[in-house]
Amino acid sequence: MENLIALLVAAPLVGAALLLCGGTRLDRAGHWIGSLLAVASFAVGVVLFAGMLGRDAGHRALHQHLFSWIPVGGFRADVAFQLDQLSMTFVLLITGVGSLIHIYSIGYMEHDARRRRFFGYLNLFLAAMLLLVLADNYVLLYVGWEGVGLASYLLIGFWQHKPSAATAAKKAFLVNRVGDMGLSIAIMLMFTTFGTFAFGPVLAATGQTSEGKLTAIGLMLLLAACGKSAQVPLQSWLGDAMEGPTPVSALIHAATMVTAGVYLITRSGALFNAAPDAQTAVVAVGAVTLLFGAIVGCAKDDIKKALAGSTMSQIGYMVLAAGLGPVGYAFAIMHLVTHGFFKAGLFLGAGSVMHGMNDEVDMRRYGGLRKYMPVTFVTFGLGYLAIIGFPGLSGFFSKDKIIEAAFARGGTEGWILGGTALLGAAITAFYMTRVMLMTFFGEERWRNAPTPSPDRPSAEPAAETRGEYAPPHPHESPKVMTVPMIVLAVGSVFAGGLFSIGDAFVGWLEPVTSFSHGHSPVSAGVVTAATMVVLVIGVGLAWLMYGRRPVPATAPRGSLLTRAARRDLLQDDFNHVVLVRGGEHLTRTLVYLDHSLVDGAVNGTAAAMGGLSGRLRRLQTGFVRSYAVQMLGGAAVLVAATLLMRGV
Amino acid sequence: MNPVYYLYLAALLFTIGAAGVLIRRNAIVVFMCIELMLNACNLAFVTFSRMHGNLDGQIIAFFTMVVAAAEVVVGLAIIVSIFRTRHSASVDDASLMKL
Amino acid sequence: MTALAAAASSGEAVQFWILGIVAVVGALCTILMKRAVHSALSLAGTMIVLAVFYLANGAYFLGIVQIVVYTGAIMMLFLFVVMLVGVTAADSLKETLKGQRWLAAGLGLGFGILLIAGIGNASLKQFNGLGDANAGGNVQGLAALIFTKYVFAFELTGALLITAVVGAMVLTHRERTERARTQRERSQARIREGKQVTPLPAPGVYARHNAVDIPGLLPDGTPSELTVSPTLRERGQVRDVSGQALADLKALERRSQEWLGRGSGSGSGSGGAERPGPAAPKEGAQK
């Protein structure tokens, strides 16, 4: 059974190798090969899952040792896999959602000349992501970590002919490097502290290690998680990453890769449990990001960027939950899975809308689309209901539990965290309703020629403003696209409920993450009621602002907060001012110091020696008599010295 | 009279000879000044010989003379051959050591 | 003379002060005289004085050697070379190196003061005199030392002298690479060139000065370069008397006119009579 684990990774890896090295011969069959291998990997995952269910809870974890990778003295990194309940959850999510998105991409990328390469990259991503979640040590995890970073870079910049896409890819890569540095430092610290990287020994040894070291490792791991999961302060890349094709946004930047940070924190749970300060930092990051993403999502008119803000916010929930310790790990992963379903579905829906709207992304240019794309409307709508936490749907169960867990932290902290989570739920309801209303309801704004918006002056080509505007013809997407959306919508509706029957999911994960019931100061019923109240408030507010009144086709200037949120709450400006300018100043100072001090010292010495030589050179006149003078001078000095010595 | 005065005289002559070497440009005169210095040394040697009451000083002076003779022969030969090629006996003209 | 006391006698003192001054003056002349010949003669004088001092100090052999070898041989060798080489007889004393003279003077002075101070400092109280050493004769004493104690150095100086002789020969000897041309061949070559077929004109054609350094005059009274040796011309030792000859001629004419009583009214004639010298060479030069 455990020999199948390698097959999980191998299938997409073979696909990537085939598609990327196979050349144009595979152009016609490339997407089928890629999708087939993804589905094969999913099938293996299902077989393993079935096998795992067959064993009792204590013996479910499987190990597969492939080979010893870097054996250098005490340094020992193996290529070995560990498939436990946590990994299994991820495997199913990754291969399942991944397979659906592969199939969806067949339709979405139909007209793209480089579709084979796209599938190659997608397969590469699947392989790297599976490696990440299956690794049994941190070094191999790091390989997968970098692998998904590479795949993300390649896929964000897939339309590299667009300068914005190329820049976004570079930005994502660079920001991720910061996080990756954190992970590599954490691994180094682990080696010096524990002498090993394997999950088992490291996590078992946390009890005997000083808290300071664990806190340092934990903070470094948190930095890594921030980079990969777009948490504050390394969140700036996610919005721009939407430049990639929509399936990429759905798979990588919504369902799987961005949740790697949550996986990392959950996987290192024992370590964080022993380092409360690091846990507090995790919680703080999660809470801040939760609000940050939500606020950004409220202001964006670009449907994908609004969803990206939402993703950031939802991952904030997960990180918050993961930071809460054993109370929250299971709920973090549960929300991760349900979020994987509904957010992937939402992105695919958005892709479907764009597909039918000539790749228009501005929601102010949508409106009334429910008549033209019924399937998309229904699946998107179900995803919407799931994310806002409509009772009975997936999001309701997972998010509700997180809010409860936040309150269960206790004390002032608990109230603050719980309040934040509740506020986040309200804002989530608001911005998702806004997206829904602007896209599928209201008047059909796309029929009229667009007027240049002050925020996007050059967005529309000049030809269209001269009255030659051809309105798009919204249409439903082909089956190959709608079927995955339907499947995901089904997942969005039922996953949460399924997981919550008898706390099935918590029980399933408990052997890995452990679980403890928190003592919430407010009862579960009150929390649920409060959630419902804020939900209604959020939806109502959005309806008042965007449902009752017509949505202007051109974005109004908006309040200060709106404008700031449109600029991603000034995160890029902050980075520019603090990091870019600061770096430039530092560089300039260093260059100045180098020129004045280092070069000055070196050149000064050289100039002094040169000047001295120039003066000494004068002594070498070439005239014998000058030399004779010097000789006589020397003789005089000798005589004087002799006399002085005798005199003394 | 104290024979030490001979030594003072030798020192004076030696200094005059040295100054001459520095001042004159004619190689032959420079040579003569060197001879003057050698002679001053000889005078000192002879005086020291008298002072110590043995003949070693005179022997040294004798050898000095022989060496000076040999030196003059070779030196003058060099001056003559230089004069043949450069048509000048000025020591300043032979400044080839300068860059 | 044989019994040389440790302390010098008063006669020796008188001799020292007189000849010492002569020696210093000779040395100064050596370095200050413009012409190399004068320097050489001054140096010879100084050396003779030193020879006397050697004798006075009991170094009889050295004194004689000083006169014979140094003054007689070496200084004469110097004079030969001066004659051979010293074309630019006047060695300009003008200093060309900046500050060289001041440096030389300062250093010389300082060095001399240091030396004299050193001698003054040294404890030179005891003078043994050469009475014992010269008891068996100065030459015999020297010989005993040279051939016993200093025999190795003596042999070495012999080798040095031989080397010096060979070296001097090698340096000055020039192998003749072609056959010497005969008188006939030279005259033929002269006629072939056609520049100066006849022998060069002789110098000193003017009656009162027939020395070789006085050029012969051309018909217009100007001196001819060809008549004096190029060596003299190079040295600047040509005595140009052409102006004087012309002035003399004019004076002669004027006087004869006065004698005949014809040129009494001529103003220019009287002016020329008083100062014939300076005006005449100019005229000659202008022509």
Spell out the blueprint of helices and strands.
The complex is a heterotrimer of chains A (648), B (99) and C (287).
Chain A: H1 4-21, H2 30-54, E1 62-72, E2 75-83, H3 85-108, H4 115-134, H5 138-156, H6 163-194, H7 199-204, H8 211-229, H9 237-240, H10 246-255, H11 260-267, H12 269-273, H13 276-299, H14 303-323, H15 329-356, H16 374-388, H17 394-407, H18 411-440, H19 462-468, H20 479-500, H21 504-513, H22 524-548, H23 560-566, H24 571-619, H25 624-647
Helix pairs in contact in A: 1-2, 1-4, 2-3, 2-4, 3-4, 3-10, 3-15, 3-20, 4-5, 5-6, 6-8, 8-11, 8-13, 10-15, 11-14, 13-14, 13-18, 13-23, 14-15, 14-17, 14-18, 15-16, 15-17, 15-20, 15-21, 16-18, 16-20, 17-18, 17-20, 18-22
Chain B: H1 4-23, H2 27-52, H3 56-86
Helix pairs in contact in B: 1-2, 2-3
Chain C: H1 10-32, H2 36-56, H3 60-85, H4 100-121, H5 138-148, H6 151-172, H7 183-193, H8 230-235, H9 242-260, H10 267-274, H11 276-286
Helix pairs in contact in C: 1-2, 2-3, 5-6, 9-11
**Cα radius of gyration of chain C in angstroms:** 31 Å
Task: Give the SSE string of chain A.
Answer: HHEEHHHHHHHHHHHHHHHHHHHHHHH
Number of strands of chain A: 2
Global mean pLDDT of chain C: 78
Please report the number of helical segments of chain C.
11
Uncertain regions of chain C: pLDDT < 50 for 5+ in a row? 266-287
> What order do the strands of the largest sheet of chain A run in, or round the barrel if closed?
1-2
Report the structural category of chain A: mainly alpha
Q: Work out the helicity level of chain C.
A: 55-70%
CATH class of one domain in chain C: Mainly Alpha
The level of helicity of chain A is over 70%
Q: What structural class do helix, strand and pairing data of chain C support?
A: mainly alpha
